[in-house]
Design brief:
By secondary structure, the chain is mainly beta. The protein is built from no helices and 11 strands. The termini are far apart.
């Protein structure tokens, strides 16, 4: 099983980025998939998750209303659309399902 995140980069405050997580060796539709983030010196924080089957979504309070998690079954991918970015969103973002983690993608928000 391999999870690969992409789409990280630099944004000014108020901007948008879309992260992608693609999976091999696993079918995302069958398991809950989560996005976490971790800033230097901070604990890893759950950002969002999407449930199998019905696709129900949940968000951390700090991103609610700004971030959207979605899934593309045909591409076996999960996305995190991040809008109205803030400097405090700066972190390495990780995709996770079951006991598997990606290596992360860095998001930097700065003016």
């Amino acid at each position: 099983v391999e999870l690969v995140e992409s789409g990280g980069g630099f944004s000014q405050p108020g901007g948008s980025l879309r992260l992608s997580c693609t999976g091999s060796g696993i079918t995302f539709e069958q398991f809950i998939v989560r996005w976490y983030r971790q800033s230097p010196g901070q604990e890893r924080e759950l950002v969002a998750d999407i449930s199998p089957l019905d696709g129900a979504t949940h968000y951390g309070n700090s991103v609610k209303g700004r971030f959207t998690i979605s899934r593309n079954a045909a591409k076996n991918a999960v996305y995190l659309q991040m809008n109205r970015l803030k400097p405090e969103d700066t972190a390495v973002y990780y995709c996770q399902t079951i006991s598997f983690w990606g290596r992360g993608t860095l998001v930097t928000v700065s003016s």
